[in-house]
Design brief:
Blueprint: H1 6-22, H2 27-34, H3 38-45, H4 53-63, H5 67-71, H6 80-87, H7 90-93, H8 103-112, H9 114-130, H10 135-149, H11 155-167, H12 178-188, E1 192-194, E2 209-212, E3 217-220, H13 226-241, H14 259-276, H15 279-290, H16 297-306, H17 311-326, E4 331-339, E5 344-353, H18 373-386, E6 394-402, E7 408-417, E8 425-433, H19 436-441, E9 451-455, H20 475-493
Parallel strand pairs: 1-3, 6-9
Antiparallel strand pairs: 2-3, 4-5, 4-8, 6-7, 7-8
Helix pairs in contact: 6-9, 10-14, 11-14, 12-13, 13-14, 15-17
Length: 495
């Protein structure tokens, strides 16, 4: 008999367990009638062993079923959802080991309550079909959870960057010359770099780069800014220096094919950011900034410009450093894309540390609160563009108090035109949850120049009646109130 896959062993084990329990047999009972040891039967039910033909016949006789019925891949109604889950490959692809979870333990949970777990799994799979959730949604969700678990700080990657700097004699001064990084890629990693390599492919002009592994050719978008080009070089150096094999060959992940690819992409990004913005001097820069008595947006931007970093690189580094070295571990990061022509705002990147904070992505096609500084700054940027004023980067601070809660955030936002994508703007925001510790660390927290606003999550869920920025009726609030009135009337009638 050919070797069985892990999924086949798991399903067979669940089937044996169901038959055994359905006949009221203990492991000891089944062991005596089948002449198989209790430990071996236990291994079968856990999906670790698949018996040979002679043992299968003995097991079938002991369970009171025919041999063909026992080895059939047809599952009972209660086990069918579990089979569907295993066949979907989700369990095998999920990075359980990163979270210290053994697949065998997950199987044990399934085996201990197949009917209840099966119903739950059926619900998940039905939701995934209805909302077009695919494997990559799980990968990206698992990646965010992994980053949040580690407060988005990885000492081994920090040390790898320091080792790279020493080995390749990268100067301590910043910014790093993109020419130097290009030279290292070409001379020490065997790259061929084509500066305008994507220009001949109109369908690829939204990408920043494409790597062709067979020729080790890196095709760049000629519209990249110098710091974007330097970041791409740093990321490629990360792939090479960290000996990463399974990787995406596009500058951004269009579709995660496997979790290993998703997490490797994240490592290369971290490497590049840490290379361009060294940890220790950056800590000193941020310490001096937080000691200022007044909010100074220009000083904030000056730190970013010191390292010739993009806003995304700058904010990525903030999420690495603030939790670890400033104790600011209750924070969120959001990146918004604004399409002025359609007047749509979309969150395409987010990170939450310590907990899921109030401002977060909503996949229900609702309208994000226009009072958020992330959106108001984008709207102001668009208005200035409409007036013919050129603005490269725009910064603003806001104290955002969430209605109906005690939560207040200090939000620092940078908005800029999207490169290389035309006619779109981007904002990045880091929000720090207000606390006594934060007030002590950030001297300018109470600066009256910082805008203070009451905010909510989406217009549909907001009860503010006099909001001038409202983009949609409070549909969810109205529905909730309607249901409340129905319940109150029913209680009256039953008195």
């Amino acid at each position: 008999m050919s070797a069985k896959t892990q999924n086949e062993r798991i399903l067979f084990g669940l089937k044996v367990k169901q038959l055994r329990q359905g006949r009221g047999l203990s492991f000891s009972d089944l062991s005596q009638s089948s002449h198989l040891s209790v430990s071996y039967l236990n291994e079968i039910e856990k999906g670790k062993k698949y018996p040979k033909e002679d043992k299968l016949k003995a097991l079938a006789d002991a369970l009171g079923v025919g041999y063909e019925q026992l080895v059939s891949t047809e599952l009972s109604k209660s086990l069918a959802p579990v089979g569907e889950l295993l066949q979907s490959n989700f369990l095998n692809e999920l990075p359980l080991d990163l979270f210290g979870i053994e697949l065998s333990k997950v199987v044990e949970i399934i085996a201990n309550a197949p009917v209840r777990v099966g119903a739950f799994i059926s619900t998940l799979l039905e939701l995934s079909r209805n909302y077009a959730l695919k494997e990559e949604n799980f990968y990206f969700g698992a990646l965010r959870a992994y980053l949040e678990l580690h407060n988005n700080y990885f000492e081994e990657l920090e040390q790898a960057v320091e080792h790279f700097i020493r080995q390749h004699e990268v100067p301590a001064s910043r910014p790093i010359s993109s020419t130097l990084l290009k030279q290292i890629l070409e001379e020490r990693f065997g790259y061929e770099i084509v500066e305008d390599g994507l220009d001949a492919y109109p369908e690829l002009l939204k990408l920043r780069s494409v790597f062709l592994p067979k020729e080790k050719r890196l095709l760049l978008n000629s519209k990249l800014t110098p710091n974007q080009r330097a970041f791409q070089f740093g990321k490629e150096l990360g792939f090479g220096f960290l000996n990463i094999g399974e990787r995406a060959n596009t500058s951004s992940l269009l579709r995660g094919r496997a979790f290993e690819e998703v997490i490797n992409h994240s490592k290369a990004i971290y490497f590049s950011v840490a290379l361009h913005i060294p940890r220790d001097p950056f800590i000193q820069d941020m310490k001096a900034f937080f000691e200022k008595e007044r909010w100074d947006g220009e000083a904030f931007l000056a730190i970013m410009k010191k390292y010739d970093a993009t806003p995304e690189m700058f904010y990525h580094r903030l999420t690495n450093i603030l939790p670890r070295f400033f104790g600011m571990n209750k924070l969120f990061f959001l990146r918004f894309i604004h399409d002025p022509e359609k007047d749509t705002f979309e969150i395409d990147k987010e990170l939450h540390l310590s907990r899921r904070h109030h401002p977060h992505g909503n996949a229900l096609f609702e309208h994000y609160c226009r009072r958020w500084v992330s959106l108001s700054l984008l709207q102001d940027l668009h208005n200035m563009q409409q007036e013919g004023k050129y603005v490269d980067t725009f910064v603003r601070a806001q104290r955002s108090r969430y209605i109906g809660t005690d939560d207040e955030y200090l939000c620092l936002t940078i908005a800029r035109p999207a490169y290389p994508t035309p006619n779109r703007n981007v904002s990045v925001t880091i929000g720090l949850l207000m606390s006594d510790e934060l007030r002590e660390q950030v001297a300018f927290y109470e600066d009256p120049a910082i805008q203070y606003r009451e905010v909510n999550n989406t217009c549909e869920r907001c009860s503010i009646t006099d909001c001038r920025e409202r983009a949609a009726p409070p549909a969810v609030v109205n529905k909730r109130e309607e249901w409340k009135r129905i319940q109150e009337r029913l209680e009256e009638l039953n008195q």
